[in-house]
Amino acid sequence: MTKKDTVKNIVDKFLKNKTGSVSLENVKKKDLISEGLIDSLDILTLSSMIEKKTKKKINISDPKIFKKFHKYSDLIKI
User: Could you tell me which residues are beta bridge partners of residue 71?
Assistant: First the structure.
């Protein structure tokens, strides 16, 4: 499994649990932060989960990295 697949699986599982939805089609089209689907604690949790599985450091204080948490399509490429 590639790192991209690993990140996608982590994000998908997290969002499905968070929204209680089986399908993420509606979530993929939304701004995750502005629409309240994820908050600051969720960003910390997701980044920590991704770091542990991929061994890649995610600096969420970097504006370019933080911006990726707004869109599903950007987040799975983090």
Answer: 31
